[in-house]
Structures are given as structure tokens and as C-alpha cells.
Amino acid sequence: MTSEDKNKPVEKDGQLLHLVFGGELNELQGVTFRDLDKVDIVGLFPDYRSAHQAWKAKAQQTVDNAHMRYFIVHLHKILDPDGDGKYG
Predict the structure, then answer these.
(1) Count of Cβ atoms closer than 10 Å to residue 2 Cβ
(2) Do 84 and 11 contact (CB within 8 A), yes or no?
(3) CA dist., res. 52 & res. 45, Å (int)
(4) CB within 8 A of 33, min separation 6: which ones?
(5) Is the pLDDT of residue 6 over 60?
(6) Where are the alpha helices (DSSP H) in 19-82?
(7) pLDDT of 52-71, one tens digit each?
(8) In this structure, are residues 2 and 8 in contact, taking their beta carbons and an 8 Å threshold?
(9) Are 21 and 69 in contact (CB under 8 A)?
(10) CA–CA separation, 60 vs 53, rounded Å?
(11) DSSP label at residue 44
(12) Confidence band (pLDDT; 50, 70, 90) for 11?
């Protein structure tokens, strides 16, 4: 087992949850949304690949607005920070 393998999260049921969301930011370098009521929750995805595809599609749709940003949140790292496949 390599050190890279040790850092890989354990996939339970083939699922590593990711959240994709975005919206218009107050500042180009910031992460504060202009209007939380208008934040676009794109969805939950079972793996990074599908989350990245959704993120890329949304980012390309909004390329003309410099303040519009989309993010991928690795929910599996929040739910299982030590990567052992167990909650807590």
C-alpha cells in the first residue's frame, strides 16, 4: 500500500458524496454570496467525476458573469474525516 492509497477515502457502497452549488459573489476573490436566496444548489453526486461534470457545465453556462462561481464540496470528507468508512 502506497502513502497515496492511505490517504484515499474508503468508498462505502461505491459512493463518495459531493455537493455542487454556486451563485453570484460579492467580490471576485471572495466566497460571500450576494443573495443567499439565489444560491443555485445543483445537486448531490455519488462521486467526484459526476460532480465535476455538473460543476463544469454550470461554470460554462455562466462564463459571461465574472462574479458567478460554482463550487464542489467533498461531503464525504466532512462526514468521514478520517476516511475509515465510519461516521464519527
Answers:
(1) 7
(2) no
(3) 9
(4) 23, 24, 25, 26, 39
(5) no
(6) 48-61, 75-79
(7) 999 999 999 999 999 999 99
(8) no
(9) no
(10) 11
(11) E
(12) low
